[in-house]
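explain this chain.
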Amino acid sequence: MSKDQSASQSLCLDPNGGLPRLLEIMARLRDRETGCPWDIEQTYESIVPYTIEEAYEVADAIALGDMAELEGELGDLLLQVVYYTQMGAEDGHFTFETVTKKIADKMIHRHPHVFGEESRDKSAAQQTADWEKIKAAERAAKGQTKARTLDGVAGNLPALTRAVKLQKRAARVGFDWPETTQVLDKITEEAGELVEAVDTLPRDKQVEEFGDLMFVMANLARHLDIDPEEALRAANRKFTRRFEFIEDALEDAGKTPHDSDLAEMDGLWNAAKVAERAAG
């Protein structure tokens, strides 16, 4: 083993090696001659699903209030950044150091009220408006002179999250219902159009009307200051919890859902609701 290889091995095996250790581990995993075949084969595109999955696992740990789990999930998410930057370094595009410098510079530039001479005496709404002005100036500096209101809203965001972000952008230029009651009226209208589509229109129109209803539901969430993704995740957890109650109750009776019927399972569902209320 050469001197460089010995130093690399020592760093990789050092439990107190910190971030340099993680960066060296990734470099070793991607080494074309001595690394891991699976890691060597990965591309920017191939690890995108893992990145998205890890971000959601961070969100799940936070929702559960499990700090030990969150610690591990944050490490998994950090690994994704290290993975991309290692590939970027191999291709000559960027490195972990240039990525961290760029985001640090951006944070300094976008917070003149903290790191500069501007006053901190402003509301969160004013800070958001100032943030958008700074971003617009940054786009102009890059030659992006034809800035559109909806520019920069990532296309691969979860659909509900993206809907809210698009609506927030439009609302900043006045394209928004001023009253929540108007959104509720629109939901009623869209629900009626979906019912009509199901009864009379082809499949593609049914899908379109369903999408319209979901879009307005996202708008209602925005007006009520509700994160629709988190609300739906909570509903998913509640459904899972109550359905598992049904399965457990049936198992105690020597049965499975296949041996039951809707009436029995619906009764157990209501019992699960009662049990939840009693538990506080």
Notes: The radius of gyration is 26 Å. The chain has a mean pLDDT of 92. Residues 67-91 form the longest helix (25 residues).
